[in-house]
Design a protein that fits this description.
Layout: H1 12-19, H2 23-32, E1 39-40, E2 46-47, H3 50-64, H4 69-77, H5 85-98, E3 104-106, H6 108-115, H7 121-129, E4 133-134, E5 142-144, H8 146-156, H9 162-197, H10 202-242
Antiparallel strand pairs: 1-2, 3-5, 4-5
Length: 243
């Protein structure tokens, strides 16, 4: 296993094989700025490393979320330039939870392509009720939230009443909004406030910028972990009581 400090050693063919893509795809991503350039070694041969593998995996996950290449390009441009391969792996693991929520207008054919299945009128009504898609009567296009599409399509096949899914969504939205507000207040009062008083300290400024850039994935990871543990405990107690 390599580390981020080791020199990149993969040729473009080896990178393509490891990532499960074609060499042509890698070169295309490079021309679009989605991949950093390789390290040029002897005989002008480019070499790639873990950061390239991690970025390719992140691009693949973003595509699975229904994002176009132009949207992925804008997304990657917003990431800090010094992210390590491990940082990128965290982004990939959490991208379904905090992918950009900018909606896109697509045709029904494109919506079904992204969903990976045909969508009936009932399916569209359920996706609309979940806030995944919207389709104005005076338009032939659908406005879709790429970050929610995969989850919404998966829920179409879950044997749970539609009303129950909507009730669960309401509970999650209400409580996560409260958590977000409280965390924002805590960050503002306990972290950002002291920073404002120490703006003349270059090291502190750099640390704050780094924290701000990495805060969102760290918070989401903490929330997901805490929720999973709490849910397991509650389900265990509920079924124990039933038994």
């Amino acid at each position: 296993m390599t580390t981020d400090t080791e020199e990149p050693t993969l040729t473009v063919d080896e990178l393509a094989a490891r990532a499960g893509v074609t060499v042509r795809t890698i070169r295309f991503y490079s021309t679009k700025g989605l991949l950093p350039p390789p390290v040029i070694g002897p005989r002008r041969v480019g070499h790639y490393g873990r950061d390239h593998l991690s970025r390719l995996a992140l691009i693949e996950e973003l595509q699975h979320q229904g994002m176009t290449l132009s949207a992925i390009e804008r997304y990657l441009e917003q990431l800090p330039t010094d992210l390590s391969a491990d940082d990128l792996a965290i982004h990939r693991a959490l991208v379904a939870s905090w992918a950009p929520d900018a909606a896109e207008d697509v045709t029904r054919a494109e919506l079904e392509r992204r969903a990976g299945r045909a969508l009936s009128g009932e399916d569209l009504d359920r996706l609309s009720a979940m806030g995944v898609v919207a389709y104005p009567e005076d338009s032939d296009s659908f406005r879709v939230d790429p970050g929610l599409l995969r989850l919404g399509v998966e829920l179409l096949g879950v044997p749970i009443a539609h009303e129950t899914i909507l009730a669960a969504r309401t509970v999650l939205m209400e409580h996560t909004r409260d958590v977000a507000q409280e965390l924002t207040r805590l960050f503002r009062d306990e972290v950002w406030g002291p920073y404002r008083e120490r703006e003349s300290d270059p090291e502190h400024v750099a640390a704050m910028k780094s924290l701000s850039a990495h805060m969102q994935p760290m918070v989401v990871q903490a929330l997901v972990t805490a929720f999973q543990r709490s849910l397991k405990e509650q389900l265990r107690e509920a079924f124990r009581a039933e038994g």
